[in-house]
Each structure stands twice: as C-alpha cells, then as structure tokens.
C-alpha cells in the first residue's frame, strides 16, 4: 500500500502543479501582448462600433476585470479571486452575456461527445492493432495500410467525409447542430431522439480519428512484446501460443493506457476542430465563433476550460493505470 | 549513412512514401511553369463552378462552323434539359393537378410537353407543396421554353444608327465548332472555389505553402527539441530536472490551447505563413526533446563517449562527433513527423480562423476554411474540399510511410 | 559409458531475414551429452551459440527454420515430430532452457506462481492449484529460494533472485537436459558464482540429468563442465575435455579465445577489444574455405581453397583445421 500512496501522491502533486501552470498561463499570456492589453483586446472588438460610449464601457469593464492599473501581484490575486467565484468576464460577441454562462451551456456537449468517442476509438483501435500484429500475414497487409491512411486523414477530414456520405448523399443523419433547430431543450422523447441522431456523425468521426493512431501504436507495441524475451522463454517451456498471446496483449495494452494519457490533449484538439465542422454546440464551435467575433474573454476562458478538462482526464487515467499495472507498485517500493 | 539509405530504399514502405512525396513535390515545382496565373486571381464571377472545360460562348460564334448530321443530337439536346428527374417531377405536378396517371407517358417527350403546355400554371400551389418546390416548377417550365422548337437561332446585332437589331448570323441545329478552333477555352479540372478562383492552381500553390509551413515548423521544433534534449540528457542534474519539468508541463497542456492563445495574441495582420509556422514549431518540441534525451542518456556512458571525455575533447566535439551521429536517425524520424503534424496544425488553426492572414497566400487550411464557411460540404460541392483533404492526407501519409520504413530499418524488431 | 541423453547429428538451421536472405547460424553441428555429464559451448558473440541452443529443442518459429539433421533426446528422435507434440512432451519435460536474458525472461505483469501454474498446466492440464503451489514451494525451498518469491511479480525481484527463479522454473518438470545460455554473463561476480553453484547443485541432486552451458568466455568453463566445444561462425571448431580445451587447445581460434581479453557481450558492438584481430565472416555469404582463414596467423592458400571438416585427434578429441595435430603443436611451440 505504501507504494501506491507514493505513486498517487506524486501524481496528485503533479496534477496540482499543472493546474497552477494552466491558470498562470491563462493569466500571463494576454498580459504579454505588446502595449496595453485591454486596449488591444477592446480595440479589436470595437472596430466596427460607432458609439464612443459603448467602446468606453467595454474598455472600462475590462480594465476593471484585469485590474491593469494595479501591480502584477494584486492583479493575480484579483484574477484568482474572479476564477474562484466563477467570474470569467463578459463576452464581447454576445454582450452582455457572462462568459461563464456561455461555457456552461457548451462544455457538457463537448465532454459527453469527446470522452466517450475517444474511449471507444481507443478500444476499437487497440483491438484492431492487436489483430493486425497477431494475424500478421493477410490481415496485416490490408488493415495496416488502411489504418495508416485513415490515421493520416486530418480530424476534420474524416468528419467531412462522414458528413458528406451519411448526411448529404444518403441523407440518413443531420449534418449540423446538437439537436433539431426547431426544438427547445426538454426531456421529451422527441428531443432526446434528436440529440441522439445529431450525436452520431460527430461521435463516429472522432472514433474514426482515434482508431487509426491507436491501432498503429498497439500493433508496434504488440510486435515489440511478441519479440520480448519472456515470450521466447514461455514458448520453450511448452506454454501454448494462445496463452502467450494473452500475456502479450495485456502487456502491450498497458503502455497504450499511458499513451492515451499523453495524447489525449492532441486528440481533444483534433476533436474540437471536428466539432466545428458539424457546428456541434460544444467548445469547438464556441472557439470558432469567439475568434470570428474577436471575443478575447471567451477564447481565453474556453481554452482554460479545455486545459482543465484535459489535465483532469490525464490525471484520472494515470490513477487508473496505477491500479492495473503491478510494475508501478514495484517501481515505487524499490526506491 | 549510405548504408542506411541503401537499406531504406529496400523497404517497400519507405519507397512508396518517397515516391508519393516526390510526386507531390514535382507537381508543386512544375505546375507553375505551365499555368502562370496568380493562385488567388479571381477568374469566375460566382461561386463553385463545377470542374470541366469552359468554352467561350462569344468565341464559338466566331469559330469556323462545320455541318454534321448526327442522329443522336436531338435526343441529347432534349435529354440535357429534360432528364429522368424532370420528367418525374412533371408527372407529379400533372397528377396533383388532376390528370389521371394512366394518361401520362413520361417517355414520350412530345405528348408530355403537350400536356404540360396545356395545363401548367405557375400560380398554382397544391396542398403540401413547399414554396421551394413551387419555384422549382417555375424554373423547370422556363428551361423548357422552346425545347421542341427545332428552328435555327439567329444572332442579332444592333444597328449603330437606328439602334434596331439586325440579324447577322443564323445558327443551324446541325452547326458545330471544333473546340481547338475556339479562341478561348479554359480547363478547370477542379472547378472554382467560392470566390471564383481556379481550385487546381490554388491547390498546388497551397500545397507548396503548407509544405513550407511544415518544413519551418518542423525545423524550429526539431532545433528546440534537439537542443533541450541534448542539454537535459548530457548535462543531467538540475538542468535535466528543469528542462524535464517544462517538457512534462507542455506535454500535459494541450498544444492547441497554446496555439490558439499565441496566434490570437499575435493578431490577424501580423500572422504571415512563416509566423504561423514558427508558432507551431515553438509549441511542438516536447516529443523531440523526450526522444533525444532518452537516447542521449543511453549513450552518455558508452565507452566511446567516455574515451572522448578522457582524451579531453570539448563538449561540442563530444556532442557533434560522439553523440549526434548515433541519435541522428531518431532526430530525422522526429523531424519527418513534425513536418506532417505542422501541416495538420496549420489546417486546424486556419479552420478555427487563426491561420495565416487570408490575402497573401493560399494554404491548405485556408482553403478548407473558406470551403467550410461557404458550406461547400453541405451544398455537395466536393471539388472545393475533397481535393484539399486528399492533399493533406497524401502528404502526411507519404511522410508517415517514410518514417515507418526508416523505423523498420533502424529497429529490425518491427519487421514485417 | 553413460546413457546418451542428447545426441545431435549434422544439425543445420537458418534464419530467413525480412529481405529473404538465409543466415545459416548453425551449420552441420553434431554433439553428444551423456547422463551425468555437462558440455560447455564457447565462442565469440554472434557465432551462433544462442541459435544452437534454440535449435536443439526442436521447436522452431520464424525467423528461425529447421533445415536438416537429427536431434535425439532420451532415445527419441524429435526432428520431424509434430510441433504440438514437441511442445507437450519434450519442452520443459525432456529438455529445458535458461535464456540468455534471464533478467527479462519473466512476464513483468504476472506473479511467479501464476507463471508456474501456466507451465505445469501446459503439460498436465488436470493439476490443481494447490498441488502446484505445494510442489513449487518445495522445489524453490530446496534450491534455497524463499517461498514468498512465488507471490511476487518479477519486477519486484533483484537481478540475482530473478536469475535463480528462472532456473528453478526451468527445472520444475525435471528435464533430462538443461541448456543454460550465458546464465551468468549479465551478473556481478558473487551472483555469477551463486548461479554456477546452483547449476552444479541441480546436477548433483539429480534434478537434471545433463547440462549444456553456453558462454562467450572460454576460461569460465574450466571447473564447470566436463567437455567443451568451441564454435566459430556457425560451426564447431574444437571438441575436447574441459582440461584439454582450456590448457591445450588445438584450433588456432580456440587458442586465441584463451588469450582474448574478456569483455561483456553487451558492450559495444563492432568495437570488440579482442586479441584476435579481424571480424568473423558474414554468415549470409560464408567463405567456401576455412571460415577462420581471414583471421588465422597460420593461414595458407589451401585454407582459403578447400572446405575443412572436423577431424579426430588423440584422446577422442576433434577439431577443424587442415593441419595435423602434430603440425599444429610444432607451430605453437615456435611462438
Ligand atoms: N532473429 C534473428 N534474425 C536474423 N538473424 C539473426 C537473428 N538472431 C540472430 N541472428 C544472427 O545469427 C547469428 C548468430 O546469432 P546468435 O545465435 O545470437 O549468436 P551468439 O548467441 O553466439 O551471440 C548472428 O550473426 C546474428 O546476426
Ligand atoms: Mg547469444
């Protein structure tokens, strides 16, 4: 148990450190902009505004929120205080809607779209990769080039292809939005069905993206493990191949879990872009429209939330991994 | 090195990737020699012209004319206006109007047209018919105007004095021109985009720019990663700890977040292709750092390195002569991957609206962005986005194949 | 003369590389081990010792293929036997193996006892867990290993402990022949001694009937095995008693090995600090004459022209050289 405590303790500390770093980054980056950041930010959004008082109002609001007149450390305290209150400022493009309100209405769409899709893609990809490594001849020849090609399709590419095939050509599924545009969110069957149908294309395109890369990773891991010394030894003690394959896949799978923890950030990045293709009402589309509307407060908050999501997912995976791989426990007790 | 290249070219994967990549490169280099238009020149007024050969209508009237009696000409002429879809639609309207189905034979063009001319009324809107459908029928009716009239067309020019039109030329149904003899013919193999720009010319130029972006991003990332990895691995101790702290930090924080924030801070006006490439490079060095560091650590205490240290060689000599040659293969592989991920990153950023400023050069990402904004995917204008996706996929496919091929040469355990 | 436990006649096996080249790493090798005896096999790294060890077990999988020759274990000719039959009735039971990399020979994510169960179940599917545990515990204790080892993962064991665990597992089914491939090269001196003592112990207790001990350090075999064979480039070049091979080697290569500086095999490839100048021939295209000719001090044009066979010498010795025993002794005297 001591070993575990050490591992989890270390992971928890690291989680804390990355969280602090994420907030620091979010705090510092806008302040690194040359000149008066508040002026730069507001000037961009107010380009088209004719009312001078309107511009002034936006400027003052932001000067207040940033506390630009105060020294840095006080600005940081102010910033952290706002964060704790959940005050992320006011959106420019949807003025005067609070940013936290916009985020709240989009974050769950992203969470419930991306995480299931990434996990399903991960599982399917590992299964295919293991099959490719094991069956080698034949299947490997077909599966590998196909998954290499698919994994090289950019995230938005497979999204568009699915959209065109199933949404436009076959007209089987809706092409955009999170639910029918003529519906109002409620718990009726019609609404839930609409959400389900709209979920399909974004979901499967994210699954498709994650499959390719995972399959390739799993295949090389499995081939590497198949050549490991313990495989040879077990074989020469007369253990059946099927049993040995069991060892190999378990061992190949474990690093894939760490791999998932390391690559989840990249995957989420790709998935965000895919979301915009479907105008899915999640964080991807929020960023898209925030950039269009030069809405810095919204961009900043969205990226912060994405970072937090990714950090949290990584942390959860690492904790899970600690429980399944005995090597973690051993490595920690040795020290 | 020679040996490695020799081995690499025996790997079918590497060769396939290499051939594809060289073909793309050849296209980028040689295409502009034949088509010298500016890639962003707007040639079409209107959006999304479909791929095809465009023949100047004006010039056809001036081209030498030949008379040809082709039996299928009339059928084709009618078929172009009145396809199966249109015939079905006409029957639908007539049935709704009240004509018994049995009386309508949609295969007999003359009878169908007679019925249509007799009963069609654009003002009628039946139960359940959308206004879009009603407009469709109106358009259909207009396009059928004079369909069965088999008379020559007359071209008239205004008399400069009276202003009245005078016939100058009569075009028979059997008149033909040779496309080669028409003064202006433009081939648009991939049609035009939403702004009326030649897609193929733009695509080739965009591939070139995107490759440059990938190259710059890859170089920046590799240089940073190599320097940090060498320092962390070779010096070790506190330097290693500090570098690894930041490496782990930037592995944990999603790269796209940094990309978005930095790109936005730079501002639209200042974002040239090179700037975007540098930003991508600056945010994607972590993997190279990790790989290089791991390799350097395993090399650090090898005999030949120790020997070099004992003989009092400078740290630069040791790094360039005793360490770099051994990790070169990893660096090259990481570099190849960085190029393709750099191209992908640019595309992602551009779709979000944070790519290079749009007036300078086309990039694959920008082409994608405009296609999306103008809903090419929903309008089914495949030529506006599909070639772009294929180009991106082919570039990264070929780079990855080369990489896998090299990997198998360097790590024989991954053999077939 | 004791009962012959293992006899090999003209065994040839080859690797087929992914470029479809043949590497004959074991080329017409013959040997014989009697009950109660041990045979040492020595040779430079890359000369085919490990390949020979694997080939002796009559169980082949890519990239290693059987070409020709006979393997007779305990009076049964196993060449040409159905592979699954070899697996069930020969491996582990008649002939067992300690791999060169014993450090990595155990599946890192499996407890030792579970692996022992798998080994025994592969041969006796009906054995109960309890019986297996009791038997394993008893065996381990006889060999001086604490019973707790059984409940551990291999990553939790120290290097020397891992090595001894592997040995204990290898002999758990009481094989007639044990092949140890460099069991001690990766260990420190104390652990080396312990391993060698353990192997001798196994012989003395009759837990194994005979042993083949492979090493790249010829001098190490003195006092460990009864007979010694020296391998060079896939072929046998000298066969004698340990005493003769170490103190009175006939083949110029065997003499060179005695004088060579001992370097760990895992050291720098291609930078060997050997006393014998030159490098072994490429096994993809071995020379047609004597394979050692390029590096031999006493080389004559004939050596390169004619292929050389094993020849007999006094005291039941064998060696592979065109010179007669007497001529060689004359040459060596004049050094
Ligand atoms: N898996 C393999 N595929 C191809 N060639 C191999 C393989 N393993 C070993 N070889 C080749 O066979 C020869 C003998 O290797 P090995 O039996 O491992 O030598 P040793 O154990 O004496 O060091 C070497 O030339 C080596 O390159
Ligand atoms: Mg060996």
Short description:
The complex is a heterotrimer of chains A (335), B (416) and C (335). Helices cover 79% and strands 0% of the residues of chain A. Chain A has 335 residues and is mainly alpha-helical.
How would you characterize this protein structure?
The complex is a heterotrimer of chains A (335), B (416) and C (335). Chain A has 335 residues and is mainly alpha-helical. Chain A is 79% helix and 0% strand. Chain B is mainly alpha-helical and 416 residues long. The model of chain B has no long low-confidence stretch (mean pLDDT 87). In chain B, a hairpin with a 6-residue loop joins strand 3 and strand 4. The two termini of chain B are 23 Å apart. In chain B, helix 2 crosses helix 8 (199-235), helix 8 packs antiparallel against helix 9 (237-252) and helix 8 (199-235) runs antiparallel to helix 14 (315-352). Chain B folds into 3 domains: 2-43 and 194-414, MetI-like fold (Orthogonal Bundle); 55-69 and 150-185, no CATH class; 83-143. Chain C is of the alpha/beta class and 335 residues long. Chain C is 29% helix and 23% strand. In chain C, the strands form 2 sheets. In chain C, strands 6-7-8-3-9-10-12-11 form an 8-stranded mixed beta sheet, sandwiched between helices. Chain C has a 4-stranded antiparallel beta sheet with strand order 2-1-4-5. Chain C starts with a strand and ends with a helix. Chains A and B meet through helix 1, helix 6, helix 7, helix 8 and helix 10 of A and helix 9, helix 10, helix 14 and helix 16 of B.
The largest sheet of chain B is: 2 strands, antiparallel
Q: What is the number of beta strands of chain C?
A: 12
Enumerate the strands of the largest sheet of chain B in spatial order, edge to edge or round the barrel. Answer: 1-6
Kindly name the structural category of chain C. Answer: alpha/beta
Mean pLDDT value of chain C:
84
């Amino acid at each position: 148990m001591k070993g575990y405590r050490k591992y989890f303790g270390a992971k928890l500390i690291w989680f804390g450190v990355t969280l602090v770093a994420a907030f620091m980054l979010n705090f510092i980056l806008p302040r690194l902009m040359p000149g008066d950041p508040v002026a730069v930010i507001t000037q961009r959004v107010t380009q088209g505004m004719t009312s001078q008082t309107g511009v002034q109002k936006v400027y003052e609001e932001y000067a207040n929120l940033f506390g630009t007149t105060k020294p840095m450390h006080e600005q940081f305290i102010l910033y952290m205080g706002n964060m704790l209150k959940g005050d992320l400022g006011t959106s420019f493009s949807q003025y005067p809607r609070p940013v936290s309100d916009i985020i709240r209405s989009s974050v769950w769409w992203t969470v419930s779209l991306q995480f299931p899709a990434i996990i399903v893609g991960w599982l399917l990809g590992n299964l295919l990769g293991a099959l490719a490594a094991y069956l080698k001849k034949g299947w490997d020849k077909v599966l590998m080039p196909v998954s290499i090609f698919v994994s090289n399709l950019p995230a938005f590419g497979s999204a568009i292809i699915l959209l065109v095939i199933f949404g436009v050509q076959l007209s089987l599924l809706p092409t955009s939005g999170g639910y029918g545009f003529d519906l109002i969110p409620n718990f009726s069957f019609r609404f839930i069905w609409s959400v389900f149908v709209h979920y399909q294309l974004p979901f499967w395109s994210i699954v498709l993206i994650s499959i390719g890369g995972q399959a390739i990773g799993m295949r090389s891991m499995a081939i590497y493990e198949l050549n490991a010394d313990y495989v040879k030894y077990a074989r020469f003690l007369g253990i059946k191949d099927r049993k040995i394959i069991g060892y190999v896949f378990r061992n190949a799978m474990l690093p894939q879990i760490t791999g998932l923890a390391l690559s989840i950030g990249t995957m989420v990045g790709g998935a965000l872009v895919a979301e915009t293709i479907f105008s899915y009402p999640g964080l991807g589309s929020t960023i898209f429209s925030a950039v269009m509307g030069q809405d810095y407060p919204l961009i900043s908050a969205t990226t912060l939330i994405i970072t937090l999501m990714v950090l949290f997912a990584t942390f959860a995976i690492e904790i899970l991994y600690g429980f399944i791989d005995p090597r973690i426990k051993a490595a920690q007790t040795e020290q | 090195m020679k040996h490695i290249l020799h081995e690499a070219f025996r790997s079918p994967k590497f060769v396939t990737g290499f051939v594809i990549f060289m073909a793309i490169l050849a296209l980028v280099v040689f295409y502009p020699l034949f088509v010298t238009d500016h890639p962003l020149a707007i040639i079409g007024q209107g959006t999304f012209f479909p791929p095809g050969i465009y023949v100047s209508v004006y010039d056809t009237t001036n081209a030498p004319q030949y008379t040809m009696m082709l039996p299928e000409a009339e059928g084709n002429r009618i078929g172009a206006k009145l396809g199966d879809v249109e015939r079905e639609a006409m029957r639908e309207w007539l049935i709704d109007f009240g004509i018994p189905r049995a009386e309508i034979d949609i295969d007999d063009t003359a009878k169908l047209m007679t019925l249509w001319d007799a009963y069609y009324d654009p003002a009628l809107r039946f139960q359940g018919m959308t206004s879009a459908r009603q407009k469709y029928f109106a358009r259909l009716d207009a396009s059928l105007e004079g369909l069965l009239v088999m008379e020559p067309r007359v071209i008239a020019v205004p008399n400069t004095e009276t202003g009245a039109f005078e016939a100058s030329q009569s075009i028979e149904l059997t008149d033909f021109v040779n496309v080669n003899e028409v003064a202006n013919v433009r081939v648009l193999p991939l049609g035009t985009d939403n702004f009326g720009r030649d897609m193929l010319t733009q695509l080739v130029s965009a591939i070139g720019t995107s490759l440059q972006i990938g190259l710059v991003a890859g170089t920046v990332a590799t240089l940073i990663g190599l320097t940090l990895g060498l320092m962390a691995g070779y010096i070790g101790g506190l330097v290693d700890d500090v570098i690894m702290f930041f490496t782990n930090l930037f592995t944990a924080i999603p790269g796209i977040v940094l990309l978005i924030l930095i790109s936005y801070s730079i501002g639209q006006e200042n974002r040239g292709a090179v700037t975007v490439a540098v930003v991508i490079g600056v945010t994607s060095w972590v993997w190279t750092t990790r790989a290089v560091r791991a390799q350097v650590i395993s090399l650090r205490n090898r005999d030949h390195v120790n020997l070099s240290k004992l003989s009092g060689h400078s740290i630069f000599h040791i790094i360039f002569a005793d360490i770099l040659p051994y990790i070169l293969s990893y660096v090259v592989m990481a570099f190849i991957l960085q190029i393709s991920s750099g191209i992908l990153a640019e595309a992602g950023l551009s779709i979000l609206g944070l790519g290079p400023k749009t007036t300078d050069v086309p990039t694959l990402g920008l082409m994608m962005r405009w296609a999306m904004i103008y809903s090419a995917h929903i309008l089914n204008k495949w030529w506006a986005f599909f070639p772009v996706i294929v180009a991106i996929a082919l570039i990264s496919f070929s780079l990855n194949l080369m990489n896998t091929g090299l990997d198998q040469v360097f790590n024989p355990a991954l053999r077939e | 003369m004791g009962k012959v436990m293992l006899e090999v006649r003209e065994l040839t096996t080859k690797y087929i590389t992914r470029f479809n080249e043949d590497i004959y790493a074991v080329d017409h090798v013959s040997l014989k081990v009697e009950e109660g005896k041990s045979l040492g096999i020595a040779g430079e790294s890359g000369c085919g010792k490990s390949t020979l060890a694997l080939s002796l077990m009559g169980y082949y999988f890519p990239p290693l293929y059987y070409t020709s020759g006979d393997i007779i274990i305990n009076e049964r000719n196993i060449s040409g036997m159905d592979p699954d039959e070899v697996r069930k009735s020969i491996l582990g039971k008649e002939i067992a193996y300690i791999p060169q990399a014993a450090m990595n020979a155990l599946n890192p994510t499996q407890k030792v006892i579970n692996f022992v169960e798998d080994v025994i179940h592969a041969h006796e599917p009906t054995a109960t867990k309890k019986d297996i545990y009791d038997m394993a515990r008893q065996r381990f204790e006889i060999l001086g290993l604490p019973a707790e080892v059984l409940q551990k993962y291999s990553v939790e064991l120290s290097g020397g402990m891992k090595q001894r665990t592997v040995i204990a597992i290898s002999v758990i089914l009481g094989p007639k022949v044990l092949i140890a491939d460099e069991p001690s090269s990766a260990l420190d001196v104390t652990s080396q001694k312990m391993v060698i003592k353990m192997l001798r112990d196994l012989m003395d207790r009759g837990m194994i009937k005979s042993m083949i001990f492979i090493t790249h350090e010829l001098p190490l075999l003195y006092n460990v095995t009864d007979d010694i064979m020296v391998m060079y480039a896939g072929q046998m070049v000298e066969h004698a008693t340990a005493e003769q091979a170490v103190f009175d080697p006939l083949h110029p290569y065997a003499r060179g090995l005695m004088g060579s500086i001992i370097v760990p095999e895992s050291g720098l490839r291609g930078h060997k600090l050997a006393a014998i100048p030159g490098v072994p021939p490429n096994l993809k295209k071995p020379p047609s004459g004597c394979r050692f000719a390029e590096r031999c001090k006493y080389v004559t044009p004939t050596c390169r022209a004619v292929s050389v066979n094993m020849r007999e010498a006094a005291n039941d010795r064998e060696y592979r050289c065109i010179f007669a025993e007497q001529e060689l002794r004359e040459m060596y005297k004049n050094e």
